[in-house]
Amino acid sequence: MRIYLIILFVIISWNANAQLPKAIYVYERDSVLTYDVNYENTDTVKQHKVVGLYANDHGRKAIVKHYKKGLPDGKEVIYFKNGKKSIIKHFKNGRLSGRWTMHYESGKILCRGMYKMGERNGLWKEYANGKLICSTYYINGKQLRSTFLHHKFAH
Questions:
Q1: Given this model, what pLDDT does residue 48 score?
Q2: pTM of structure
Q3: Tens-place pLDDT, residues 103-127
Q4: DSSP codes of every residue in 55-112
Q5: Residues with Cβ < 8 Å from 19, sequence gap 6 or more?
Q6: Residue range 64-99, pLDDT digits in tens
Q7: Cα maximum dimension of the chain
Q8: How would residue 30 be classed by pLDDT, with cut points 50, 70 and 90?
Q9: What's the gap between Cα 35 and its chain centre?
Q10: Residues 6+ apart with CB under 8 A from 45
């Protein structure tokens, strides 16, 4: 029995001073794409939205992030270069809290779940070709169980 899994990762390089990503790295299969990000507004007012644009294409959003009192608070959206959403996540007082969703570049959902106080919590689901392939249940960041639903699939 073989399990085929094609994984897409989006890794973000952070600017430690401003807590803003300075680059977005997209790992897909055997290649890595790196996109620099520039920001329109980096003020540290009580509540604001920061929009990061792809450095080599100022007309395209790379990331939109909300802040409150200098900490991430609210919805954050990271975009693929094609304009489709890559990751949607929510923060509360600087910690991941609420729904987290990752998409394939095609727009289909790759993975979704919930965070509570910075930890995975509840049911997380992984998809391939629109089909549910794995469900994993977490409580306070600890994995309790996983169920694999499809043993073979192709991307």
A1: 80
A2: 0.71
A3: 999 999 999 999 999 999 999 999 9
A4: TTEEEEEEEEEEEETTEEEEEEEEE-TTSSEEEEEEEETTEE-EEEEEE-TTS-EEEE
A5: 70, 71, 72
A6: 999 888 889 999 999 998 999 999 999 999 999 999
A7: 55
A8: low
A9: 15
A10: none
Task: Evaluate the CA torsion angle 28, 85, 124, 119 in order and state its sign.
Answer: positive
Torsion over CA: 120, 124, 127, 130 (sign): negative
- Name which of 79, 69, 73, 115 is nearest 93 in CA terms: 73
How is the chain split into domains, by residue range? 8-148
Encoded amino acid at 41, one letter: N
Q: Which two tokens stand for residue 35?
A: 């996109």
Q: Tell me which residue has tokens 């089909």.
A: 131
The identity of residue 119, as a single letter, is: E
CA distance 27 to 111: 15
Structure-token match 């923060």, residue found: 91
For residues 28 and 43, the answer to whether their CB atoms sit within 8 Å is no
pLDDT for 41 equals: 57
Helix (H, G, I), strand (E, B) or coil at 153: coil
The amino acid present at 106, given as its one-letter code, is: S
* Those residues with Cβ within 8 angstroms of residue 29's Cβ, 6 or more apart along the chain or in another chain: 6
